[in-house]
Recover the amino acids of this structure.
């Protein structure tokens, strides 16, 4: 490998400086296309994080833009954090990526959130079942609902070559259709949660 260090270096630079920023921008465009009026998110203003939330979940002070109490973030949930995010989106090297429901536990009493979610799941299993039927997985049993997204590397390579990402990013568009169906269930979880 070291004998091919220049090729490796050039490849990494191409990926980090051209390929990933272009694909990231295309994904952010999908976020923007699917976002509705009552949504906010990290897909605006070329932010590095890709997340969305209902505007009603935003508790930001007037002098700041966002401070959502909950959001759906496009993340890598793999144990190995050394992978490139795009590799995780393609399921390479055992990595997994998708949308994860994250909450600001400080707003919900810190560690009390876990107790609340477990209690809520036992008392009101219908919304949790509905989320599971939509494809969400509770990764820890503590309300960390996750919707997997898997991109095909061949389609992504074609998209980069042809500068047309619609087909390659269809799994993200499909996830948005699922998220739209799930928001009422997540909103119910948040509205019924105890706050500090």
């Amino acid at each position: 490998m070291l004998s091919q260090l220049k090729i490796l270096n050039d490849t990494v630079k191409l990926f980090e400086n051209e390929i990933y920023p272009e694909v990231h921008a295309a994904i952010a465009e999908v976020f923007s296309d699917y976002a509705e009026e009552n949504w906010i998110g990290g897909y605006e203003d070329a932010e590095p994080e890709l997340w969305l939330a209902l505007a009603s979940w935003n508790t930001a002070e007037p002098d700041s833009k966002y401070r959502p109490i909950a959001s759906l973030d496009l993340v890598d949930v793999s144990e190995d954090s050394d992978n490139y995010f795009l590799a995780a989106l393609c399921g390479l090297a055992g990595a997994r990526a998708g949308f994860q429901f994250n909450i600001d536990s400080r707003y919900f009493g810190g560690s009390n959130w876990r107790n609340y979610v477990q209690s809520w799941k036992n008392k009101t299993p219908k919304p949790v079942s509905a989320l599971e039927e939509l494809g969400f997985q509770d990764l820890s049993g503590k309300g960390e609902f996750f919707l997997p997204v898997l991109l095909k590397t061949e389609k992504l390579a074609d998209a980069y070559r042809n500068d047309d990402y619609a087909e390659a990013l269809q799994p993200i568009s499909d996830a948005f259709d699922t998220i739209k169906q799930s928001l009422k269930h997540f909103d119910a979880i948040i509205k019924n949660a105890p706050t500090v």
Observations:
- The first helix runs from residue 5 to 34.
- The mean pLDDT is 84.
